[in-house]
Design brief:
Blueprint lengths: L4 H16 L3 H11 L20 E2 L1 H11 L3 H4 E3 L4 E2 L5 E4 L1 E3 L24 H5 L2 E4 L8 E4 L11 H28 L7 E2 L12 E6 L2 E6 L1
Parallel strand pairs: 4-9
Antiparallel strand pairs: 1-5, 2-5, 3-4, 3-8, 6-7, 9-10
Helix pairs in contact: 1-6, 2-6
């Protein structure tokens, strides 16, 4: 399979230009019309409610490491591999926040408060909202994940703060993906992994790609 990095990066630059022009006030109005208030249920952090994967970017990992005196291994692990190269190395895009064996985030307390609240990643700080370019749309739409707090009244000032976070997250995601792809040059040919979940990491060398480059992990 051949992946055209130049085309992908070009597309991302167009999306960044569009994202730069997003109106905070317009997005805030949409958030107010949808409504949201966190009810501290902790469901978004626990596996019983579905996929609670949290993608982490290098700067987010470093902030947690520096603030909490942890090692990167204690904070995150490689995401699910996307392809395998001719040497048998598995390649992943980005890192994910560590979870307990039961699937719950390792940073949620019994009372549903978060150990990382002040340093929480973009995904957590904007949940249940996110911005996405869908169906060839010329600008991103506000999407809403399942959450008990959706539909509750939200103050205008809180909606504006959330809209600012949403715009910041989208720009960070586009920037991260652009740099990741630029660092991916030389890996345009790969064989996609169809079902990795049952294979495990044992015996494989893992290469994790992000905006800082590539990190090799040997079992």
């Amino acid at each position: 399979m051949r992946f055209n990095i130049l085309d992908a990066v070009s597309d991302l630059k167009v999306k960044k230009s569009i994202a730069d022009k997003l109106s905070i006030n317009e997005m805030a109005k949409q958030v107010v019309s949808i409504g949201f208030e966190c009810v501290r249920c902790g469901e978004c952090c626990r596996a019983r409610s579905g996929d609670n994967t949290v993608i982490l970017f290098p700067d987010e990992i470093q902030l947690i490491v520096d603030t909490h005196g942890m090692t990167p291994d204690e904070v995150c692990e490689p995401s699910i591999p996307q392809f395998i190269d001719d040497s048998g190395t598995l390649h992943c895009f980005e890192w994910v926040l560590n979870r307990h064996s039961n699937g719950d985030c390792i940073f949620i307390r019994v009372d549903n408060t978060c150990m990382l609240y002040q340093q929480r990643p973009w995904i957590c700080s904007t949940y249940p909202f996110f911005l996405a370019f869908t169906n060839g749309a010329i600008k991103p739409d506000i999407k809403v994940s399942e959450c008990r707090g959706v539909g509750r009244p939200i103050k205008k000032e809180d909606a504006i703060k959330l809209a600012e976070l949403l715009k910041g997250r989208l720009l960070a995601e586009i920037t991260e993906e652009t740099r990741l792809l630029e660092n991916l040059k030389g890996f345009e040919d790969w064989e996609p992994i169809r079902d990795y979940s049952s294979q495990g990491y044992q015996g494989y060398t893992i290469a994790v790609h992000d905006s800082s480059g590539m990190t090799y992990i040997t079992d």
